[in-house]
Amino acid sequence: CGPICARQTLAEKISGNLSAGPVALASHGTKLLVANRSGALTIIDTSDSSIRAEIPLGQKLSAIALTASGESAIVADELAHEVIVLTLKDGLWQPQQRVSVPWSPVSLQMAGDDSFCSVACLWARQLAIVERAPSADNLSWHVRHVIDLPFAPRRQWFDPNSKRIVVADAFGGR
């Protein structure tokens, strides 16, 4: 099977299970992390297009963000109203902490220095800033601040030079 066939096989594996409903992707080396609406995180090895793991995490995953080091990930669960912090240990992604956030988290944006993550909460019309607290294990995350918005947020972008966050309206003025 050549490169085109391999790409088709990988695409089939990601979308083959329609009930899973892949909604967000992140990559770390040859591993592709796929957040699914089913609440599971699928780990795919892109070097051979094989599914390495399927990790049940929550109810309805909606977003995923990796730290710059690639050793931690944050996944949003839209129905449980939480973000799940995962760490990579011995080649396996393991849930370490769950942090409650406002209603319906739909997107995540990790700061370039990994010190915090912004969480767009659609129906709450809020942006939650989830911060990593300095600790010995470096796994203590908490909601630092919640910003009320006059619109339902969806997409986000960080300005890496000023740490400003640009948030886009989910419904574009409809």
State the main characteristics.
174 residues; mainly beta; 4-stranded antiparallel beta sheet; 1 helix; globular
Strand order of the largest sheet: 1-2-3-4
Order of helices and strands: HEEEEEEEEEEEEEE
Q: What is the count of helical runs?
A: 1
Helix content: under 10%
Largest sheet: 4 strands, antiparallel
Gyration radius from CA atoms, angstroms: 16 Å
Specify the structural class.
mainly beta
Please tally the β strands and state the result: 14
Distance between the termini: 47 Å
- Determine the mean pLDDT: 87
* Percent of sequence in beta strands: over 45%
Please mark out the parts with pLDDT under 50 across 5 or more consecutive residues, or reply none: 2-8
